[in-house]
């Protein structure tokens, strides 16, 4: 039924009043944010962050000027984490295991052989385990967005021989990220772990400072480690992800509308990135084989038995505490 003029006028005035009462996101205060990333711009996490930042700029008509800097342009993981905590850097992508130096519980999701498949990973990280990690980070001034990016299951590459058994790791010079979990894991397996940052890893492999390293296939491919490594052993010894984190005070100073827009864009990009990373970590094997990398699949149970015998799980259960460990085992099953 057609509106008469009086009805139309009242409707139009009401609509305009509603618009004036709730200004659009594009009309708010100018916001500038820098986000640091550690991996090459070709890595799925870097692509996801670049896409999300572009979406935020577009949705805010450029008012939220958020820029992503991949490939450790703003510093190593440790350097960027220090900057985020001090407020010198607004945001970054960060592995939970790398952040355990400032919040011990952050590394619990990287426990060796904890998650048998992706279904268990996402149940844990989108559930109580992820919530516990975010709460721990918040206590040290770090805000973590609700959904974690997928880095993938980690595998071992070597230059001298494949890893078919625990014995093959004895005395091997293994590069590991600067984190207590990684160091203790490979020490328990008998190798000689050396902490080297991701931006120095290629040269360390090229100059034989270390014999091998461990990473998901996406990082092995994007970092071009196949050029300086011969073997890839599919151990899937650890799952790892990247939290999108921010300086707590900085993020909480944003308006609720701005934070909602940023969160929504990050979550949409994360969902797509998870699907793409899972696919790539399967499909890349064929591509890497064509580039000369030789693959093998050792029996995983032998590594877990060796870790149990060495007291690895018992030690970390004590460090994390029974409450946090119980949350982990709700998704992983009994580990110790």
From TrEMBL:
Report keywords, A-Z.
Signal, Transport
Subcellular location(s) of the protein: Cell envelope
- The signal peptide stretch is none
**Pfam families hit by this protein:** DctP
Q: Which residues cross the membrane?
A: none
Q: Note the CDD domains from the entry.
A: PBP2_TRAP_Siap_TeaA_like
Family, similarity comment: Belongs to the bacterial solute-binding protein 7 family.
From the Swiss-Prot or TrEMBL record, give the protein name.
TRAP transporter substrate-binding protein
Q: Which organism is it from?
A: Bradyrhizobium jicamae
